Amino acid sequence: MTQVTMTVNGEAVSGDVEGRTLLVEFLREGQGMTGTHVGCDTSQCGACVVHVDGKAVKACAVLALELEGAEVTTIEGMANADGSLGTIQQAFQDHHGLQCGFCTPGMVMSAAALLKDNPSPSEAEIREYLEGNICRCTGYHNIVKAIMAASGQDVSAIAAE
Amino acid sequence: MYNFDFARPGSIDEAATALQGEEAQALGGGQTLIPTMKQRLAAPATLVSLTGIPEMQGVCLDDDGRVCIGGATPHAVVEAEAAAHFPALAALAGRIGDPAVRNRGTIGGSLANNDPSACYPAAVLGTGATIKTNTRDIAADDFFEGMFTTALHEGEIITEVRFPVPEAANYQKFVQPASRFALVGVFVAKYADGVRVAVTGASEDGVFRWSEAEAALSADFSADAIADLSVPADDMISDLHGSGAYRAHLVGVMTRRAVSAAT
């Protein structure tokens, strides 16, 4: 076992891990932060997306020991300081961007990464960016709508399909 | 995944030493190797991460105007930093996998793995790039030795890739939508001394140059010049995503599209 230390949602955390310990295992089992989900565990579905040093990555395909000293942000870090939902989370609720909710942590983290680089994305840009996030409930339409709304764009003209 | 010892050296020399160990394996971004280890298709005793080596990161231009990319540079960085120097290469990097994969996966990892459907091998072979390792320079024409096989020796590290910038170039990828790998991908590059055409995703032998098309395009760089050319379907990959004949057909289609887009 080797000790690894990283910053998760602004707080320094450390733990003893094996070489094979994945970031998502470190977060869920080591830190008890179960907001980050394991969907496919084959880096296809994107339910485990978190930010590492500001970039979206799949936490099921990164070793914890790779991230010594890294800044990690998870879905637990997306709420406002008072515990209320963050802008993207609130938009997902307002626009019914989730049904079962399993993919939602990854969707929100991917959306946050997109909006950081592209504050006002088109529908096509959002759909392309979400290529690596799979949702089996919503048909994506309301997820796209929620992200457009979270970026401050008018979505009243987008019909529910 | 079986357990392993993990090392994250800070220099190429330290990494080369660590890779001398018994059953040691280099780890780039891990976007292929980690899933492969989860399936227990690989079980190295030691993983040597190459992501903590500053001299293997980033994009720059050398004195000859070649675009030089550090072996551990993620696809997303190539997409952003190569765009001004070599737009076709940046565009290729920006369509590998998905955004989260592009933030981790590296050019050196992709080339060392030489997946028969990966994108980067087409760019490297299609430009006649030079692969620099910790011990030597390898020409693209000597590097790819068939599906998942390269000229790299045990423990050898791709430290940099140097691309001669073409006068015109384009990469066309027919995406296999489930994996986002290329069902067929074609990189076309026009230089003062001729045109190179490299095809990925299609052949059982991995990436290859389509020399017949190169000759025709060197004489006349237009899609019409190769309208009547085709590749034989015999050695093409045949699977549930597409037959060998379908892939052979796509080679012609994607090459013509790439030429049209480059002109």
UniProtKB/TrEMBL annotation, chain A:
Signal peptide: none annotated. CDD domains: fer2. Keywords: 2Fe-2S, Iron, Iron-sulfur, Metal-binding, Oxidoreductase. It holds the Pfam family Fer2_2. Gene3D superfamilies: 3.10.20.30, [2Fe-2S]-binding domain. Residues 2-78 form the 2Fe-2S ferredoxin-type domain. Transmembrane segments: none annotated. SUPFAM superfamilies: 2Fe-2S ferredoxin-like (SSF54292), CO dehydrogenase ISP C-domain like (SSF47741). This is (2Fe-2S)-binding protein. It comes from Rhodophyticola porphyridii.
UniProtKB/TrEMBL annotation, chain B:
Transmembrane segments: none annotated. SMART domains: CO_deh_flav_C. GO terms for molecular function: FAD binding; oxidoreductase activity. InterPro entries: CO_DH_flav_C, CO_DH_flav_C_dom_sf, Diverse_Substr_Oxidored, FAD-bd_PCMH, FAD-bd_PCMH-like_sf, FAD-bd_PCMH_sub1, FAD-bd_PCMH_sub2, Mopterin_DH_FAD-bd. SUPFAM superfamilies: CO dehydrogenase flavoprotein C-terminal domain-like, FAD-binding/transporter-associated domain-like. Gene3D superfamilies: 3.30.465.10, CO dehydrogenase flavoprotein, C-terminal domain, Uridine Diphospho-n-acetylenolpyruvylglucosamine Reductase, domain 2. Residues 1-168 form the FAD-binding PCMH-type domain. It holds the Pfam family FAD_binding_5. Keywords: FAD, Flavoprotein, Oxidoreductase. This is Xanthine dehydrogenase family protein subunit M. It comes from Rhodophyticola porphyridii. The lineage of its organism: Bacteria, Pseudomonadati, Pseudomonadota, Alphaproteobacteria, Rhodobacterales.
